[in-house]
């Protein structure tokens, strides 16, 4: 069964260039939030987390982004933030 991620988050495959602070990454069955990142060689990024060593990302990985929503005329409208 595919991992659906934490409640309120949507998974997507992102490249190092499109990863953002606040995204969540699954590592050893635990979700960690990206709190900082720095550029590395050849377009790679080093992601920093609280409570975990940094992670070097050189290619596409699955990240989880919080799903934003607003109520409009009684309907819930979802958008990626």
From TrEMBL:
It comes from the Bacteria. This is Uncharacterized protein. It comes from Streptomyces castrisilvae.
């Amino acid at each position: 069964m595919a991992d659906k991620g934490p409640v309120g988050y949507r998974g997507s495959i992102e490249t190092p260039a499109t990863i953002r602070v606040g995204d969540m990454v699954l590592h050893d069955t635990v979700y960690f939030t990206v709190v900082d990142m720095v550029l590395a060689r050849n377009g790679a990024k080093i992601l920093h987390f609280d409570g975990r060593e940094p992670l070097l990302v050189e290619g596409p990985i699955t990240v989880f982004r919080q799903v934003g929503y607003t109520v409009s005329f009684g309907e819930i409208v979802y958008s990626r933030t």
